[in-house]
Amino acid sequence: MPARPLVVHVVGARPNYMKVAPVYAELERRGDVEQRLVHTGQHYDALLNDVFFAELPLPRPHVELEVGSGSHAYQTGQALIGLEAVFEDALGDFYRPALVVVAGDVNSTLAGALAAVKLGVPVCHIESGLRSFDWSMPEEHNRRLTDHLSTLLLTHSESANENLAREGIAQERVRFVGNTMIDTLLASVDAAREAAAWRDYGLEPQQYVLVTLHRPALVDRPELLTRTLLALQDVARELPVVFPMHPRTRNVALVDEEKIIVTPPLPYRTFLSLQTAAAAVLTDSGGIQEETTVLGVPCFTLRDNTERPVTVTHGTNVVLGLDPDAIRTIPARVSQRMELDPPPLWDGHAGERAAEAIERILLDLPAAAL
Ligand code: UD1
User: Would you say residue 57 lies in a domain?
Assistant: First the structure.
């Protein structure tokens, strides 16, 4: 048993990495805890996975569980069983964590939190308190349940604090630390701008629309997806459209690649570079709503709701709904870059505040838990 308490971070899918990296890096810098990174293997394609570890201040995972794809129950269940074995030290080169850190709202997040609490290990949730109030979204199940399993809930916005208070979560468990994903963005944005990735696709700055779509609410509805792609082709007549495509979408979408520039999933800095110079972004991602808010790039969210209302009240986000006709209005609605103050505590220092909150709770935990 080492002298320092062990903090185990669980990641599994692309959006987790940028949220955890600043917290991991700051805890490492402070040097008061031992750390391990466990990857469930929910995302396994190199382009959704390996490329990010090269670009972010994260080590290669110490353990990779290779859970892979499947139904929600299969994926969550496999991750739960695998993580329990890791936390119990069944793999031999590990020992019991003092705290497990999970981030966001993917299936691996819930599995990490549940495996930990079942063993009596406290959980810290990065990006707590987001609510779409849309119970058809798998992410809504994951984030609600994870929040209620967590001992330390790190939030990035006032509305998240309010959601948690409304659900009866004790205020002393909640710490408003800001947005750790924006720490990652601010650390990378100058290099991303300099990379000028738009040139690689023959594009001019402020003269293209960047698109990402991967949610089941769209991708798993063939008729709606077809109408959406036709609307994008209409947009492309006025402004070029570049569409880095998630494998879930690639598996089902029939795109006319004469009209729309389709790319594989892109490395973090390349995608950020494309965001910085886009005339507008059309997305159903959560994180991209936040990134465009900080970059001042107009964002149109192809969903009926957002769990990130601060991107609408303080940022550039417009919730467009799922009607493909709304997409056709984008070229006429693209305005100039907006100079906005970022939401409170989206300042590049959230990782530091998160690390401090984690160390403080480790001091407060009963010695037996360490
Ligand atoms: C997951 C998250 C979603 C997040 C997204 C980011 C859940 C419930 N969903 O969605 O919140 O926005 O990640 O990307 O956790 N696939 C591959 N290679 C991979 C991974 C997936 O080809 O490395 C394909 C498979 O066909 C798989 C499908 O994508 O069945 C869906 O993958 P899955 O991890 O279930 O969900 P995502 O759509 O990636």
Answer: yes
Span 266-288, pLDDT tens digits:
999 999 999 999 999 999 999 99
With the most atoms of ligand 1 within 8 angstroms of its CB, the residue from 42, 108, 225, 288 to mutate is 42
> What is d(CA 302, CA 228) in angstroms, rounded to the nearest whole number?
10
Tokens of 218: 């769209």
- pLDDT recorded at residue 369: 47
pLDDT at 370: 43
238 falls within a domain: yes
Please, which residues bridge with residue 212 across strands? 283
State how many domains the chain has. Answer: 2
pLDDT number for residue 251 = 94
Same domain, 90 and 234: no
Task: Let me know the angle formed at the C-alpha of 153 by 57 and 217, rounded to the nearest 5 degrees.
Answer: 80
The tokens for 54 are 């090269």
> In this predicted model, what pLDDT tens digit does every residue of 122-154 receive, in sequence order?
999 999 999 999 999 999 999 999 999 999 999
Same domain, 96 and 197: no
- Counting Cα atoms < 13 Å in the Cβ hemisphere of 117 gives 17
The catalytic residue positions are: 214
| 339 domain residue, yes or no | no
Ligand 1 center–CA 48 separation, angstroms = 9
Per the structure block, which two tokens stand in for 334? 């693209």
Q: For position 109, which CATH number holds?
A: 3.40.50.2000
Q: What's the whole-model pTM score?
A: 0.96
Q: Where do we find the tokens 């409170």?
A: 344
